[in-house]
Amino acid sequence: MDVALVTVGDELLAGDTENTNATWLCRRLTERGVTVTRVLTIPDDRDVIASAVREFSQAFDACVVTGGLGGTPDDVTKAAVADALDRDLVVADDVKAGIVAKAEAYADQYPDLADAYDLDVDFDAQAAVPEDARPLVTDESFGPGFVAGNVYAFPGIPDELYVMFELVVDEFDGEVVSDSLYTPAPEGALNDRLSDVRERFDVSVGSYPGKGRIPTRIKVSGPPAAVDEAMTWLGEHVDVTEPPEGGSGYADRPGAEPESR
Amino acid sequence: MDVALVTVGDELLAGDTENTNATWLCRRLTERGVTVTRVLTIPDDRDVIASAVREFSQAFDACVVTGGLGGTPDDVTKAAVADALDRDLVVADDVKAGIVAKAEAYADQYPDLADAYDLDVDFDAQAAVPEDARPLVTDESFGPGFVAGNVYAFPGIPDELYVMFELVVDEFDGEVVSDSLYTPAPEGALNDRLSDVRERFDVSVGSYPGKGRIPTRIKVSGPPAAVDEAMTWLGEHVDVTEPPEGGSGYADRPGAEPESR
Questions:
Q1: ipTM confidence score
Q2: pLDDT digits over B119-138, tens only?
Q3: Last-in-domain residue among A117, A146, A171
């Protein structure tokens, strides 16, 4: 299964916010055997979002969108996804009732804020989703996410994304696994073997240089049987060593390096 | 100046590596008044890279590419950028001489590794850049980055990127600034003011919800005079409060929040 991600938000493009949502989704999807084909970050611009969602939903098995689901004027993702799919936005009555209840609970919890500020929540707008979409409702988010065709829309706030994604996680799966080995050989001494293993087996191969005595990492991804064969072949043709101390740690390559098998 | 970023690497799409390069470049460019229009992450696939670079270099003032500049078979960015620009790859003799010297220095520093492994470095391939490109050479990187037309190609290893970017940083500039204010008003009570400020002034406006008593952030970006006018107007029409403690800290929105003025 091939999935493309669209992460929406001016704050991402300004470098205000690290795009941890993208990395988190990439990891979760990869763990499930899915291949993430693209991650695109774009501004809160209805036409740009619609164009990206249209392209990716047609080109890949699913398109996952995060961000811009709130109720302020810079939140245009719902309208944009509806545009992309040539659908209208419609109000789901049960979703709306839930949002009204959340607003009442907020006013109970913060009576001073509710008194001081005129909460002009447009409940219809908050409860709208594209026609025939499946709303995704959690306690953590005020408004819904949704699934419309093969487009999945989630909030941009990480804690809200994490909870909502669990509602649909079983809908993402695939057969791609990966495995790595480490070698003391410098990357520059591996070219022939790296080319060979790509040609012999139905796998993709990445190599990630260490520095000096930090070993080189070779990562192989593909169908399980092909990965097994490729790893066996590599084990016979490349000197193998232990992973660097700390397991995943290339000092200059931040981030965890979980294996998906 | 509008700039799009292309970050190349299967390890990013697998969620192995947080895309800190993208965030760092977004921040550096935004600080200089540039608008970052897109960040696209794609696999180490020559045709996909060529297509993205072609599209972005035509649509925007510059296209910045990171990753895939090494010498192993999964490093195809140089060839892809050459494809995108309809140029050949050519060897710059002075660049090649520098790479040969680096390989000799490596062998001196790690004689056991150099003896044990056959370093079949293809110096011509390592020294190649697209025809008429300006090579970017630093001590930190083995091979060069380059500028070809309005396409800037940098290594994917962060420490190497940071140093190389400094060689060309002055070529990126623009007139966009931004400023923020914080308000105790819930986001849902601000819709009319947020719409008003967008319509009255030549600015883009983002609002980022706090939770409960964590204040809402309103961020305004655009030409300096317009941002000044919009901030003055907002100060007269919105209750203003101090930033949350810790300055930038929305617990659920990771990352620093530097202002670009």
A1: 0.91
A2: 778 899 999 999 999 999 99
A3: A171
Closest partner CB to B188 (pick from A15, A121, A257): A121
Contact A257 B71 (CB under 8 A): no
CA-CA-CA-CA torsion sign (B233, B235, B239, B241): positive
Q: Is residue B101, in this structure, part of any structural domain at all? A: yes
Q: Which residues of A102-113 are buried (b: 16+ CB within 10 A; e: fewer)?
A: bbeebeeeeeeb
Q: B-chain residues within 8 Å CB-CB of A158?
A: 252-254
* Whether residue B233 is found in the same domain as residue B211: yes
pLDDT score recorded for residue A86? 98
Which residues in B lie closer than 8 A to residue A188 (C-beta atoms)? 71, 103, 119-121
A12/B106 touch (CB, cutoff 8 Å), yes or no: no
Distance from CA of B229 to the nearest CA of A (A): 19
Q: Do A19 and B23 touch (CB under 8 A)?
A: yes
B2 membership: H or E segment, kind and range? strand B2-8
Q: How many angstroms separate the CA atoms of A159 and A148, rounded?
A: 22
Token pair 């409860």: residue: A127
What kind and span of H or E run contains B76? none
The DSSP 8-state label assigned to residue A215 in this structure reads P
Q: Quote the domain boundaries for residue B20.
A: 2-171
Distance from C-alpha of A135 to C-alpha of A140, rounded to nearest angstrom: 14
- The pLDDT-based confidence of A250 (bands split at 50, 70, 90) is very low
Task: Count CB atoms within 10 A of the CB of residue A241.
Answer: 14
Asked if B132 and B15 sit in the same domain, the reply is yes
- Rounded to the nearest integer, the mean pLDDT of chain A is 90
DSSP A9: -
Other Cβ atoms within 10 Å of A20 Cβ, number:
16
Distance in Å, alpha carbon of A165 to nearest chain B alpha carbon: 16
Which residue among A189, A206, A255 places its CB closest to the CB of B119? A189
**Measured distance CA(B88)–CA(B76) in Å, rounded:** 14
Q: Kindly give the pairing relationship between strand A2-8 and strand A151-154.
A: unpaired
